[in-house]
Each structure stands twice: as C-alpha cells, then as structure tokens.
Write a structure and sequence with these properties.
Elements (H helix, E strand, L loop, with lengths): L2 E5 L4 H12 L3 E6 L13 E4 L5 H8 L14 E4 L7 H4 L5 H21 L4 E7 L29 H20 L3 E6 L2 E2 L12 H11 L5 E5 L5 E2 L2 E2 H13 L7 E3 L5 E2 H12 L4 E5 L1 H8 L15 H7 L7 H16 L2
The structure holds nicotinamide-adenine-dinucleotide.
Amino acid sequence: MKKALVLGAGGFIGNHLVNRLKKDGYWVRGVDLKYPEYQEKSNADEFVQGDLKDVSLVSRVFVAPNQLTPNILGFDEIYQLAADMGGAGYIFTGDNDANVMHNSAMINLNVAEAAVKFKAGRVFYSSSACMYPEHNQLDPNNPNCEESSAYPANPDSEYGWEKLFSERLYFAYNRNYNLNVRVARFHNIFGPLGTWDGGREKAPAAMCRKAAELTDGDELEVWGDGLQTRSFLYIDDCVEAVIRFTRQDDFIGPVNIGSAEMVSINDLAQLALDAAGKSNKIKNLAGKDFVDKYGFKCPEGVRGRNSDNRLYREKMNWEPTQPLKDGVASTFKWINSQVNI
Ligand code: NAD
C-alpha cells in the first residue's frame, strides 16, 4: 500500500487532498496545527496535531509507519501545503509580514531537510501566483504569468517573496541531494469546505458569503474598484492537477496550476449574486471611503492576474476545465448552508 504525508492537512486544499488520496487507496498521515474546520473529522488514517516549525515534530512525522530507522524508505508522496497564509485582508495589509515570512520559511526549511534525511519518494510543494513580478500584472486585461516571467523577481507581497525563496530551496535540494521535487504555483483555489469568514477567506468565498447574507435593498460590497482581474480554480480540478503533476516523472516544475478563465472582481461578485438568485446591486469601496470604514488601506493586490496554462497543458496533456460559474454555484450552495445554520 502506498503511503502519503499531507502537511497542512487541516487546511482547505490539504483536507480535500487527503480525501482524494484515501479514495486512491493510500495510507495517509495528515499534519496540521488544527483539524479541518468544516468536516467532522479528517479522513487521514492518522492525524498529528502539531507545529511544523518544530524540527523534532517534523522528524517524527516523516518516519512512515513500521519504519523505525531513518535509513529505510519513507513516504512515497509528500504534499507540503502548510503555510501561514490567508486572503487579501491578511497578506496584503503588511501587518502580518514578519510572521508570514518566518513561519512559512521555517516549515519549508524543516521539510526539505527531513525529506532528504528520511528518503521521501517525492515532494510536492505548493507555491503561489503571488510570486510573479508586480510589473507584469499592471494591465488588468493583459497580465503575464508565464512561468519563465518570474525573474527579475518583484512580488508585491512578502508572502510572494517567501514562496519564491522556498521554490528555490526545493530546487536546490533537488540539485544537491537529488530530492525528487514538484513545484507548482497555485492561482486562487476555491470551493466548498474553504474558509468563508473571519478575515482569511479568499474573494470567491467572501462574495458567496456576502451574497448569502444580503437582504433586500442591501448592496454587495466589493473591495476596490472591482476592475482588477483574476482567475479562480475549483478545488476538484486543483487536486486532480496536483496528483497528475506529482505522479509523472518527466517534469519537476515550476508550473502554474490555475484556471485560464479570467474575470473582473465585479464579474465574480455578479456570479455570486446569480448563484444566490438575488438582484442586489454591487457597491465598490475604495480610497478614503474604505480607510474611513476599515481603518486600513484597501488591499487590492495586483491589477491583473490569470493562470497561463500552456506549460501544464504541454507537459501533462491535460488542463482544468470546470467553468467558474459552476464552481461558484457549488461554493455558494455550501456557504449558504453555513451562513444559515
Ligand atoms: P489553508 O490556510 O487552508 O491551509 C494551510 C494550513 O497550514 C492551515 O490548516 C494551517 O493551520 C497549516 N499551518 C500553518 N502553519 C503551520 C505550522 N506551523 N504547522 C502545521 N501546520 C501549519 O490554505 P490552503 O488554501 O489550503 O493553501 C494550501 C497551500 O497552497 C498553502 O501553502 C498556500 O500558500 C498555497 N496556495 C493556496 C492558494 C489558494 O488559493 N488557496 C493560492 C496560492 C497558493
């Protein structure tokens, strides 16, 4: 039986990945600071609640069952998704920069070292589109997120800089220690069982929550002018893309995992309203009005971002296809059930 270790298994994508690995017949150990928030319990065979910044915990969890010495083969697949992250309100305000960089870098330093020491079969690392240079994402209609455009580097957040550092870390371990790595850059993953309130939620979940909570006459508030563009990948497509990439042997990345269906944030808000069957208006809040209401500058991020899927398609002969409209409808249904519990 194959064994997988999922780091960040209590998080949104990690939890979905555990569910998929169990369906594939794997023995799975999950590790996280917390249990999955919206599923009664993790489907992992073993769930270790602990801090991956702690090197001794990392050493313990990397030893696969029945393998008491570090010199025999460890897990077949390791998925490193643990990171100190959140939505725009957490990453782009600047208030959490030191923690974001320190915590995530510590995790990745520990994981790369342990993966070599305990002879991991292969290690998937989830980087982010936030590592792309800001200067290539100023035009909302024509952003450039081709993998090769990463350098000269100029991410617009410290979160993006840490991702870039850790990508390089895993590739260095690949060159120097033959660590069998796969590095992918996620572009806005969303779907049911994801954080939908509390400040760490992403745009699709925030729009669905707002649409669910609206009553007649209310306006759906969108941060910024709403003309900034993004693409959003539904969770099932994300998990499929991760698995396909991790299990092939010819290409280690970096590669984008995202949707190429680019929309404005106002378009996304409209899809959430459509899913809710509501005809309320959208209100864009920016500039001084935003500062007056929230006490900090509107965290809009880059003006345009879209997943360039050409490389993934070329290497994997596949790409995500779920239309955004369908993903928003499923996500709205789940968030609506949470809001109205
Ligand atoms: P998430 O926040 O739901 O999951 C991350 C998990 O890591 C959390 O459950 C958290 O508790 C855990 N974690 C954080 N610090 C830890 C520590 N010290 N020890 C143990 N566990 C710790 O995020 P997600 O959306 O599931 O994202 C997974 C990965 O994908 C992250 O690395 C993220 O940066 C990356 N990513 C996600 C997106 C997206 O749109 N969701 C986009 C780009 C990149």
